[in-house]
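Researcher: I'd like a structural prediction for the single chain below. Treat it as a standalone chain; there are no partners to consider.
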Amino acid sequence: MPADLKNFITELLALLEVEVGALEVTTGHRTVIAVDSPDSSLLIGPRGEHLKALNTIARRMVEQKHGEEAASFLIDVNGFHEMEMEKVRAAARMLAQRARLFKHDVELAPMSAYERLVVHELFADDPEIKTESSGEGKFRRVVLKYKDSALAES
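Model: Treating it as a single chain, here is the predicted structure.
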């Protein structure tokens, strides 16, 4: 599907009348369509809102035509999404240090499902920090639990 996916995204961006310099599909843990565009401000929008909407629309269209498994990809424009995820990782690392230092659980700010997944993956092999999601809807967040405190509560 990567070749078809590349053609689909190219056609979608052409329909939006957006200039695209390069488009590269990388597969692996996640399929990422990296778009290089001088019209990045139009594609990304304020706080990434347009990019989120573009990803949602593109995934729904692919899902309808090829099924749910084919729709697990991410469109990233000029590295914006990866920069945002690095900010999430950096904040989580800082708060994890606080959890280790004070040996106490720390709650992160509410975040999207994808951002929570990134944080859970970041600490998957950490010997001192365990992650859990708590809350509901747009208030759902990750809690970084110091493992000694988790054992003491049990």
